[in-house]
Automatic annotation (TrEMBL):
Pfam families: Phage_AlpA (PF05930). This is AlpA family phage regulatory protein. It comes from the Bacteria. It comes from Aeromonas caviae (Aeromonas punctata). InterPro entries: AlpA, Prophage_regulatory_activator.
Length: 87
């Protein structure tokens, strides 16, 4: 069974459903970035390009999604990086 906790789906045991696919709207809400910023993070020609940003999965001809586990790992790496800079 799943429940909402701090804006992300978790199992009753407290673990994230890492294989769950999330769409752009949920990704935007989860990481607090706009649609255009997310696409900039994926675009090597953008000033805001982030090579560590998780690659999307193609779900159909015009649909993409991201694995929640990849997003959570990316967030954790950002937190670790920011902690190491501030120390």
């Amino acid at each position: 069974m799943l429940k909402i906790k701090e804006g992300a789906l978790v199992t009753e045991r407290g673990g994230f459903c890492s294989d769950r696919i999330i769409r752009l709207k949920e990704l935007s809400h989860l990481i607090a970035l706009s649609r255009s910023t997310i696409y900039d993070r994926m675009n090597p020609k953008s000033k805001r390009y982030d090579p560590s940003f998780p690659k999307p999965l193609k779900l159909g001809e015009s649909a993409i999604g991201w694995q929640l586990g990849d997003i959570m790992s990316w967030i954790k790496n950002l937190q670790s990086f920011n902690t190491s800079i501030s120390n």
